[in-house]
Amino acid sequence: MKLDKVIAVRNNKTIYRDGEKCVKVFDQNYSKADVLNEALNQARIEETGLCIPKILEVTMVDGKWAIVTEYIEGKTLAQLMEESPERKSEYLALLVDLQLEVHSKKSPLLNKLKDKMNRKISASDLDATTRYDLHTRLEGMPKHTKVCHGDFNPSNIIIAEDGTPYILDWSHATQGNASADAARTYLLFCLGGDNDDAKTYLDLFCKKSNTAKQYVQKWMPIVAASQSVKGNAEEREFLLSWVDVVDYE
To answer: Model's pTM, two decimal places?
Structure first.
């Protein structure tokens, strides 16, 4: 395996291109279970028929775990939005269409979104009263079994040279409520400082999916709390500002 062309460096992992292959190498301290779970998620998503890079193997590189997938030549939706701001509304509409396609799929063996969120809320730094309120709100939300990406944003969409969109990074995939997935995407735009894009995205999602905006907003404190257990201090502070369950509507 030839690992001399770095595509991206992220927390705890480095992504390389090796010819027609993409090799994601995880740091030595990365959990083996998490690597294997990510590979399993991706294999399960392949079976839904969604357009994603196919997984080729799980292996070890210099004592580190690695996932090898097809390499997709193209540009991310985030790059295209930056290069052609005049087409941003068109690209945001495409983002929503792709997310709705994801939500149209079922994958019964994926982990459940509610279980994951309950675990993360329990692991958060929030006081016991707030955690109780969040757990109660989460349990009261409708139970769905739609495929949810968990990190759906323009940098995880690649538009291939022939125009085909591919959806990347299925490490957070679960089955659950689509509006929770939309709340996560909205908060990701906000975390990036793109408040206008966040609003446009949410308006488009609610219109195209025929979902009340208030319903997606009800998920935001829950999603923010569950996401606050990771990330840097600045991100945590921002996310926790969304967690005031009692007053937020």
So the answer is: 0.93
DSSP state of 75: E
Residue 151's H or E segment, with its range, is none
Residue 93 to residue 192: CA distance in whole angstroms:
19
- Return the SS3 of 109: coil
Residue 142, C-beta contacts closer than 8 angstroms, at least 6 positions apart: 177
The Cβ-side half-sphere exposure at 64, using a 13 Å CA radius, reads 17
Q: What is the pLDDT of residues 46-95, one digit of tens each?
A: 999 999 999 999 999 999 999 999 999 999 999 999 999 999 999 999 99
Residue ranges of the chain whose pLDDT lies below 50? 245-249
- The residue whose two tokens read 């908060």 is 187
- Residue 61, H or E segment: strand 55-61
Q: How many residues does the chain have?
A: 249
Helix pair 128-140, 113-123: axis angle to 10 deg: 170
